[in-house]
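We give the entry.
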Amino acid sequence: MNRRLNNTPETTLPRGALHGVRVIEMGQLIAGPFAGKTLGEFGADVIKIEAPGAGDPLRNWRLIQEGTSVWWQVQSRNKRSIALDLRSADGQDIARKLIAEADVLIENFRPGTLEGWGMGYDVLSKLNPGLVMLRISGYGQTGPYRDLPGFGAIGEAMGGLRHLTGEPGRVPVRCGISIGDTLAALHGTIGILTALYHRKVNGGQGQVIDVALHEAVFNVMESLLPEYSAFDAVREAAGSALPGIAPSNAYRCTDGYVLIAGNGDSIFKRLMQTIGRDDLGDDEGLASNAGRVARVAELDEAIEAWTQTRSMADVLAILGKAKVPAGKVYTAKDIDEDPHYRARDMILQQTTRDGHVIDVPGVVPKLLGTPGTVRSSAPHLGDDTDAVLGELGFSTQDIAALRGRKVVA
């Protein structure tokens, strides 16, 4: 059965590792909000500032259920929403009050936007010397490209990833998700946690974390640059293969493809025995990866000659018994029906604020002592405006006046 965590009273849930940390999220769409989502899942109080009217554009991205994106239900769970006009002087003043009492500020505007609103770090750090500020942008806060618009797709291209995706000689393709934004968010989250630890042990001083989308992508590009530096080698697209490591590829079965990673020395021998090619398994020239890479086409042909006469289920069962890493390419349907996902709480049921029950991803990583939780579903725009302003000391009359001037909604 799916576990339904977000309807559990918060007092009965385990206290998260980040309980007591207050985060102000000014970002929108993917990169900044994904970082806020991650912190919120581990107990941080995340207050999301949205523009009155439309709010975060992600509310209307991809598939919509009763006016709200189901993506929003994942990205904004465990957050509180305040609808605040940051372009107004009163709205900026309220934002500064919020930030003055916060531990973390997340923003992913174009560089200079906050400075134009009187909320550069030089100003905010005087109000709150311990403030940790995550700034995610296309090209970073410095450098000749800092003022150029940059989305995750551009970061993937500049970071070197897009050149490697797709089939050799064909147009580069995206991997199907906004991986550049997510990588930037994860690097930003690492930066936040590192800065919070530094603040704790070094006198309470905060700092700025500057994350560029293309740098986050570049950071996971493995040996791409050293290979060019040492050998003038430009790594190229290789389809489903793993260049320089063999055998590791997707192989055709009677009803689809399976991925087989037979590139460990002992694994390779077991794979060859399993497919009836002991001649290759016992070949001294194939005992190490270098020899296998030199003959990768021969090995791929031998493996696929075996897989293409069998179903995916048969191939996976046989290779599993032989302890050879293999797996099929999962669709959303495969994930939803997989018992392993459910056994590890990686599929949860979440009830939206409109009463719909949907399956959503669980929390990663898994902390066994202070596990992440879904404490609340994603908010409607401005659901928490009055509560948050009340915590700042605004009276009911003050809030009504601000609402009348369209500063809040």
Residues 179-201 form the longest helix (23 residues). DSSP finds 18 helices and 13 strands in the chain. The chain has a mean pLDDT of 94.
